[in-house]
Every structure is written in C-alpha cells, then in structure tokens.
Amino acid sequence: MLTPAFLNTLTFFYPVGNTPAASLTQYLPPNAAADILLLGCGDVRNILFTSHIDGRRMDITCCDNQKAVIARNILLLSLIIDSEDGPNDYLWSIYYHMYIDKKALDLLRSQAQKLYELSASMDTWQQSKYGSSLSFCDCDTLADLKRMWEFYSMEQEGDEFKRRLESALSKAKALGSARGGDGMILTGFRSAIPAHYDALNDVDALYQHYWEHGNTEMDADIKATEKYPNPTFLALEDESIVHYGTDPLLGFHLAIAYTPLQPGNPLFNQIKNLPRLERVVMVARMEFREWMASYRKHIPNLRIRFFVGDAISLTHTLQHKRTTTSSTAHLYRDRYSFQRLELDGPDYSSSIAPLDFDVIDTSNLCDHLGSLVLLAATSPLLRNHASSVLHTEVIARHHQTDQEVLSHMLCGHVPTVSALLDLFPVEFWTNTSPLSVGEEGMLDEVTSRPSGKAASAKIPQMFFKTCWKRPLCRPQILESCSKPISIQFDASQLAKVLYQVYTYMFRDEDYAYKLANLNPENFHKSSLVWYNRAGFATFLRLVKTRVTCNWDTAMDDLMALIENRPNAPMGKQYFQELYMYLYIMGVFSSYVLRFWQDRHENNIILTAMQALSIPRITPSNEKWGDLRDWKNIPSVVCVALKIPRNKLAIFTDASRSQMGTPYVHCVLEGSGSQGYWQNLFPACQLAFGDIYTRGEPYGDSFEIEVVEDSASWDGTSALIAVFYAPAFCLTREPREAKIAFGIHSTPASTGQFVSKLGLSMNVYETTLQNTAAVYFTRHGPNQTHFPVVPGFSHPSSTKPVNAGVKTSLIAGVDQETGHIVTFTGRLDIMGDGHKVALQDGCEVQKLTVSPCEVSIRLGEKTPLVLSFPVFVEEKSQRVRIARKSCYIEVIAKVATASEWMNYPYSMYPVLLQQGIPSNWNLPYIELQRCPVVDVSQSTKLKWLDIHISMMMSARERVLNRKRELPRSFGEEVRLDLKASLCTLFIKIAGLKCEKHVVFGLNNSENGGVHILILASNLRINLADRTVVLDCAVLPLHDGLMPRLANLMAALVSHGMIMIKVNDAEMKLWKHVLPAYVERCRTWTHRGNCEYAKANAVPLSTENGEQCLCACGNGNFPPNFISGVPNWKTLAKHSVRAAISPVFWAPFADELYRPDISEYIPTTAGAGHGPPRKGCASCGRDKQEDGSDLLHCGRCKKVNYCSIKCQRADWGKHKPTCA
Length: 1218
What we know:
alpha+beta, 18% strand, 40 helices, 5-stranded antiparallel β-sheet, globular, single chain, 8-stranded mixed β-sheet, 39 strands
C-alpha cells in the first residue's frame, strides 16, 4: 500500500544478477563482525564473493520478492554445504544453465526433495545440518520455499517442463527484441572493466550463445548432453518470464580473461591456451568455484536468513520490532497478497537476528520503487557508526543528465533532503568514487552510434552506485544511538521544504511542467508512477522524528500550500488519501478526522463545508442496510472491492507483453445528488481469490477473509482490491455513491485504454450498496491495526556531544526555493568551567576541522564540537558570541556539490574510533585476493592506459589541456595528484617506456624527496573493477633521514623515478597515504599507536615531520620486493599500501565521452568497423596448428580458425557479407 499499485500481468524473473559481484563489507574495518541487510538481494554472487575475500563473522538478512530467487539460492548454498570433496561443475550448470544434463538434473531434484522434506516445519529445518547457517525470517517464507522445492523435485513427465521453458524463453526473446531491437547486447562490457578494450568483441557473442543453447558450454559434445530443462529457471506462476537480459557471465569479473597474469597464478595455466570465448567462460567458472570453496570454509562465521516479500514492508517491520518488540507492523508481506508480515522466525524470538545494520544494500530497487520512500524506510535501520554504509544502485536512466540522478532519487534539493534523512551521499560531496564512471560513458557512446548493428542496441542504462553514510563527524558523536541530533526549523520554513518535496514527487500532475517537457523521452517518464500519498506520508513520518519545531503549525501550513497548489487540479482528487494516511501514521490529524467520534456533540462547531461533508447519522431501531447502521463507525474504514473475473477480460484476452503493467487505483465518486465529487485511492492492495465473511456487516465485529488463488492471472477467481478510505467520504452517500477500480491516467495508459474503457478508464464500477462486491471493515484482511511506520526512534539515553553544553542545530530555509541554505550550530554553555571562561572574556577561536565540522575553543578549555549534516562553506562562516547569555553560534551556508574544491585535503578522511583508525570513504581491500598482472607483457596492457585516463572528467580534461584556464586551488591540487598517479601506473606497467619500481615524490623547491614508493605488484581490484598498486611507502622525516641518507644514492642509481610535486600536492599525498595504508592492513595497531596519542590522522603534514604511525612498519609478505638495493633496511621503516586511481563522481562532474571509433564491435556481417580479432564463430585467436586466422574470402572483414567454423557461421554472416 505504501507504493503505487500496478497490475502484475507481466512479471520478469531474475534468476541471476546483471552486475559484477561486489564486496558487501569493503567499507568496514577489518575483522569486526558485520550485520548486513540485502534488499532486492537477487542471486548469491555478492554473498559468495564477499565470503571469498573477507572471512569475518557476518550475519546477513536477505530479502527478495521472488520466492524462486530465494529457493534457487538456498538450493545452491545447501549443495555447497554438502560438497565435502569440494564444489563440482554440476553446481555451475544447476545454477546458471537453462538446460542441463541428466546427472545435474538428478542432483538438483534429489537436493530439492531433501529441502522439501526438511521444510516440513520450522523446527525440522532448524534441527537439520543447514539450520545453523541458513534460516528464515518468518514461517510464510518457509512455506513459499517449500512449494518451490516441491516443484523442483517433480519428475519431468513428458514435455511439460520443456514446453513451459521454451514458451518462457520465446516470450523473453520477443520482449527483448521489442524493447532493445535486434542489436548487440553489450551489458557484459561492465564485467570486463578495467580490461575492457577487447571485451566488446566478445560479450555479445557470449550472450547470443547462451540464449541460443541455454548454456555456456562451447564443446559440441557437452552441449548435446545438456538438453533437460532446468526447473529453477521456471517460477510456479506461468506469467513470470526469465528476463531477456539474463546472462550468467554478468555477475563475474571478466577482466582476468583479458589480462596477462603472472605464471604463478593457478588460473593462468587453466586459461592460457584456450580460445578467447572459452577463456572468458572459464574465468567465470573458476571464479565461481573459488567463491564456493571459500563459502564452505567460512560457514561457521556466516548466518544467512531469508525473507520472501516486499522490501519496504520488511524494513518498517524491523524498525517496529526494534522499538516495541512487536513482530508485526501490520503490513502485508507482498504487494499481491493479504498475508500479514510477521517476524515469527526463531532468530527473532531468540533475539539472534539484528534489528539495525552495519551495511544495507538495496541493489537497484531505486529503478523499481520510489527511492525516497525506500531511503526513508532504510535510514533508521543504519547504525550510527562512521563505517556504516547504505548502498543504492541506479541502472535505468530516468533523468536528463547525470547530475540529476540524486535529485531524482531524493525528489529535490540534495543537501536539504539528505539532511532530513540523516544520510550523507559520499560521492556527491567528495567528488570521488572507487568505481570508474568513464567506462559507462564509453558504453553509452558505443550503443548510441548512428549506424550499424551496435546502434540498435540503445540501452537506456548508466550504472551509478551511491554510497550513503552518516554525516562525517568525529569521535564525540560516534556513539551508536538510533536517533540523530534533531534539526530545528521554523514551522513555516519546514512547510516550504516539505512542499517542494511534494511537488517534485507529483510533478506530473502539474500541467505547466508537462507542457514545458513535451518530448518522447518525457512521454515515457510520465508513464512511470513512483509515489502515492501513502508514500509521502511515510517520508513525513520520518521527518517528524528528525526535526524539532511546532509540528502542527508546520502541517497546517503545508496542507494550505498543497491545497492551493497551482496548475495541478488532478492533485485534488488525492487529498482524502493524503489526509487519511497522515492520520493513520500519526503525522497529522485534520479537523474532521481528529473530531470524527465527537461530530454530533454540540461543542463541536463545523464549518459549512465540513457539515456538508459529514451528514448526521441518527441511530434508530430500523436497519438502513448500509454504513448508517455502523454505530461508532471509525474515522477511517477499510474497503474491499471484488472485481468480477469477466471484467478483467481486457487484460486476460490480450497479449500480456503488449499490455504491460498499468498502474491502478480505486475510486469513490458521488452520484450527483450532492454535487460532483471524486476521490482516488492508489494505495491499494491486490490479490486474486474469494471473500468469506464473519460477523454482522456494518459493525465493529465484521471481518472478511480472502482465500487467495495462487493461479493469479491464470486462474478463475475475482480480483480483490483493498484500500482505506475516510468514513466521511463513504457516509456522504452511503448507498448511491459509486465505487470503481480503474487505471491510472498516464500518457501510455490513456493511449492504450481510453478507446476500450472510455475516458474514466474504469475497469469495474458499482455502488456502495452492492453487498456482493463491496465490504467494509475496521482493518484490512488479517490485520488488527493500521500500518505502522516508526521513523527514527528515540534512544533511552544519548551521550551528549559536548559535556556541560547543550548543542543545537537550526536550519535556515530560502522561502522561494524551499532549500536549506544555512545551518546555525548553537552551543548553550551550562558547565561552570566553560561558562566562567566565556563570561570572563576569554578568547573564542573557531577552527575548521572538516568540511562539515568546526571546533570552538574557549581560552585554554577543551574544544567544543559543532557538526553539520552537510558540507558547509568555509569562507562565509560567521560566529556570534553572547557572553551574558552564555551561548555561541556558528552560522554557515550550505555548500554546493563543488565545495570539495575548497577542502582539497578531505578527499579520503581517516577517522579515529576509540583510538583505532578507520577509513571513511576509501574501501578496504584484501590484496592477496587481487590477481597480479604480468607487467612484462606490456603490449597486452593497452586497456590500462585507457582505464587510468578515466580518472579525469570532461571538465578536468579541459583544464589539464588548457593550462591558461582559471581553476580553483582545490582543482589544481587534485589534478596534480591525478597526474602523479597516472605517471606512477604507466611507469610501473612500462607502457610506452621502460618499467620502473622505485619512485620518489620530489618537491625540489622544498626539501627534495619526501616519500618513497617501492612497487611490488600491479593487481586487479576485482571488487571495484580497477587496478591497485601493491607497494611499500616510506615517508621520510627528520628522525629517519640520518639513518637512510646513504641509501638514497643507491636508489637513484637503481633508476628511481622522480615524480615532481609542489607543496600543495605533497600535503595532499600525506593526507591520503594513511587511507592507502589503512585499507590493506593485516596487522593490528599497537596500544601506543602514534595516531591515538596525537588524536590525529595524519600525524602531521609539515616538512620533516612524521605523517604515518609506525604500527605496520616491516609487515610484508615474503619476497615482497626484489631487486631493490638495501630493501631489508628500507622495509623496517616502510609500510604496505594499496594505491588506486582516484575517480570522479558523476553527480558533480560531466561525463567524459571518448572517441570510440576503434571500439565499435563487429560480429559476422556487422558491416562496419575493424575486423574482429578472433574467430567469428568460436573466438579462437589462432588456427589449431598455431597459424594465423583465415579471412572470409568475400568481404575480407571476418576471421575464422577453420572451414568448419566458417560454415557454422555462414547463416549469420551471409546477409551482410560484402
């Protein structure tokens, strides 16, 4: 109900993921246990990959609304647990192949039968060998999965399974062709980053192979045996279709297939002699095998629980349980069911399961749900730790420019709304990202070419991953409390802020906006409905628990603004739903709802309009046979509407692929006897089934039960729509008023349904007196209360930020824009020591600690801290001192996304938590899990030059090329750092130059070499799809130089490369080095760590002074550095570091779109671009005897390794062979 309702006439099944596996724990300090929440979890790739590179103890809660996805996942994990001799290749086939051989099918069916038997009850499961590591959030999830496992275990009699799978795949192919054309499918390009240069020639061929054969096998004999339909690629519901983009290789890190690896790598011998296409598949299979082995090894440290259902419902239920211990928040498990979500699994009754989290990953749910509703639901579950992180992904493009992504997600001004959510979009403020976005620009360019086959593959995609953390702060406020510091607002200003969010949420109701954006792209966008008023109410509920103000006044002002909104007459039809959900969620009660029960008392005075809206109901002995018989009718009533099956013929008789999934609503409309009125209710719950009643109608005891029809659209049952409505709407005309179920008006739905349903687009309509179709109850089926949305909870006790001081945060709002433009941090001095010092006229000093934090020192007293939830402008800050009243205020302007330029040294902050350093936004990395690149084969590293160049955005490239252009100090120093990094990587790889391993950061005008960098290996960072330099760093300082002075000459003679830096860049290097070191440490900081003693990271950035602690000095693997003079001596003073490229973020900079003419991929017959390098049929680089490939004798553009391959490919190549 909290998200817009739509008809699920077409459901895509997502058996495997569509983005490369990511590390779930890469922002957490090493070794600490992690509680993780995965929403829209999809397949198990992220879990397996994370357990492979990180063996810490993890508790993972997985949520997906498709039971077949969860059933497949548990089937695989249980098979891994049972693999005592190690995982075998059958598991790859079972999990990724649409067609499998007989042995794999038998293994699958027997395992499914075992799981089916173990799922007889929760106790049976808990007592099994899987119960200690795999569990369930609720009994209904186990019941759903039991049905799936029973389905998997069924004997495949006749051709029924084959027919169903072929039908599903045929529909998927047709939909893929209709939506993406017949062009090349290049999404696998992402999985090959950073070694993507040659991948475009292969990813489409591999995709086409998979969809042609239903497997990834290249050997003809093996392919012939895989002819049995894999039941795990089917859902119980026939309308579920495997998504046309499904490709098992997308979830892996394919760069390894295009990278020369060191011969010592076990994978090297496996793939070195394989043809290229086979090599790519083998890389994925080997990686999968390694992941499974690591998962099995780490099972004692892993507990995974599963939930099948709606992510929004689950998050609110977790919040409610944390604050009240109740197992239900009176929400439904799924959009299309009346099962109440109740966390009755054993982990919740025993309090084993976490109710807040270190990591929350929402996958790409933002592409499917209103992202602001999603963030409002998840933010209260994120722990208030510096390392805690919430991830969102956006793949589908619903925005004009990349800079609009976050505005679209937050429905407005990024600093304002993120502050209300108590979330900090890291990439937005820092303009740094661990992921390269530049390759996304390349993919966009390739798929947007004006001619050729690649042009038809117009993928409206751009993969953006955003990291949300708690606002950057220092140790004083890193206590784990569930409620952030409140933001104080003037009521009218807060109303303006919330009104701007409202108008953005529902901007398609604004005629002026729609007329100003008439184009095909916006036509499509206007057909997507992201929010309903119930969702807006959930956001307001969160805000109410986040702010301090006169809330009722703010709501009065907000509702006045909404009611008088210009150019949006359609919005008035949703007012009753808005007022009702504000009331249900405890946000705001309108006069009518607040005093509904007292509406007939003489002391309640109603306006003329309200009196008309609330007709007097006079109880009498006679029965009216309608709502007038309900004594003490509540202010809000649940309405159930039964839509006859025959009325759904417009959907069931049509092609579901053409019908789409139209948004729907319920309607209440006057008969005309009291004037025309109409109210729309999009917040409705849908399910197929039949209704049974208990109790006397029109009374408190009346209830309905819906016996659901699992056949859904393929069954024969009626559709049941349930929604809440204000009683006064229903009692205006309790018999004659019309109730209807209709299609929401969008450009697409209007064009499709008006000719069939008329202008109203009502699928079914009747009157309130139709007792066979309309039912009124206090609450929804299986519910006893209204839905609960807790928001931020109030902690029982919160440690004050500053002892003896009351800290306040006051927002200043621009009345025109509704944006927060200033924050005032206020310190009310109450402790005697600070108060006396202030009143005695002590000096008050303000020091900028970070882009969102200042400290105030009163004389020699301990500094007081003021933190802001956003970056603030440094130059415009003002301090107000009231010595008599004993308070100090710092007024700061809210910064823009470009403010990072004024804080150049806050690129990778390292925070101290209880004296232990913790990276804030530079991910941790397990270097031993990163494959080593063989840099001796520099001719195979052309991709590295391209990848490193992606460090610069379009703006930075212009500045770098045209030195005469003005630039800020921050821009200049970051450009210099990127240039130095570029030199470092190019020289290490020996690209277009001699290979080097020793580097000195040389400030020739101020002290010479300050930092030594000694390279060990260049590695592929699989988690972030980039490269990383595994090296030793040695910062030189006055205390060390006398002992090392004689060694410097030997390093220079050895060929040390001097990287020229200036004072500003050297200072930046000293700020980022602690993060580069901390991210890869395998050692523990000592009790006497210099960081803890100085309470500072870095220790210093001054010339001659130490910048790093010495805790990790000398901790290197054996043979870490070879061939460097005096390495054993140098190692004692050096520390291991992982230096990676610094990429920009798309929210603050323009995407660089390179010339990709040489990248344009071709297949046999593509008809343009350079010839394909490998065999067009099998991908081999050479003929079997090692000689060069043959060319097509006609066009000379396509290569083959044999006549057999040429003949096999002729059907594809013939139409366009020149």
